[in-house]
Amino acid sequence: MSPAGTFHLGPENASLQVNTYREGAGAKVGHDLVIDVTRWEATIELAADPAGSSIRLTVDPLSLEVREGRRGFKPLTGKDRAEIAKTIDAKVVGGSPISFTSRSVRGGAGAGSPLVVEGDLSLAGQTRPITAELAMTDDGHVTGTIPVTQTTWGIKPYRGLMGALKVRDDVEVVIDARLTLG
């Protein structure tokens, strides 16, 4: 596990993304999206014993920017990206604050042992429990892909083309960071 200490993360030293996937009869005309979170901050207080550790994260809900549209019929345009951003704000997060506060941290004791973080995620005006598994190397590289089921937070997954194109209910939040004391 990385050395004990307090670490501050944000877009200047880590990446936080949301990946969405399409389904339905009209999936070929849509895109699987990679959405960058461009304004966020996290504080990680890492203790020698993981049980004494904590994680807090806040996200500006208006900072979600489509970086890439994968496997679509045609490339995304600037107009497409702007329309997606507007839809995310109006129909998904609704400008509500997004935050995560850990309740417990365990594991991470040996090489390859995941750090299991349980806590509360506030999204779309609702707070629900969530568990995340993070991989951490001895040099402080932290990675994780956390599945988030939209309907758990009262979010109706996007549908287009009269319901033929749908965003899958499960999206992924992907973190990639390096914890360094400094």
Written account of the structure:
The structure is a single chain. The chain has 182 residues and is mainly beta. The protein has one domain: Beta Barrel (Lipocalin), CATH 2.40.128.110. 9% of the residues lie in helices and 51% in strands. The chain contains one helix and 14 strands. The protein has one helix at residues 78-93, and strands spanning 5-9, 14-20, 22-23, 32-37, 40-46, 54-59, 64-70, 98-107, 115-123, 126-136, 141-149, 159-160, 165-167, 170-178. It has an eleven-stranded antiparallel β-sheet with strand order 1-5-6-8-9-10-11-14-2-4-7, covered by helices on one side. A hairpin with a 4-residue loop joins strand 10 and strand 11 (141-149). The radius of gyration is 17 Å and the shape is elongated. The mean pLDDT is 87.
SSE topology:
Blueprint: E1 5-9, E2 14-20, E3 22-23, E4 32-37, E5 40-46, E6 54-59, E7 64-70, H1 78-93, E8 98-107, E9 115-123, E10 126-136, E11 141-149, E12 159-160, E13 165-167, E14 170-178
Content of β-strand: over 45%
How far apart are the termini?
Answer: 17 Å
> What sort of overall outline do the alpha carbons produce when their principal axes are compared?
elongated
Name given to the CATH homologous superfamily: Lipid/polyisoprenoid-binding, YceI-like
Number of helices: 1
CATH architecture assignment: Beta Barrel
What does the largest sheet look like? 11 strands, antiparallel
Which regions are unreliable across 5 or more consecutive residues at pLDDT < 50? Answer: none
Main sheet strand line-up = 1-5-6-8-9-10-11-14-2-4-7
Assign the CATH topology: Lipocalin
Question: What is the helix/strand order?
Answer: EEEEEEEHEEEEEEE
Give the fraction of residues assigned to helices. Answer: under 10%
Question: What's the CATH first level?
Answer: Mainly Beta
Q: Over all CA atoms, what is the radius of gyration?
A: 17 Å
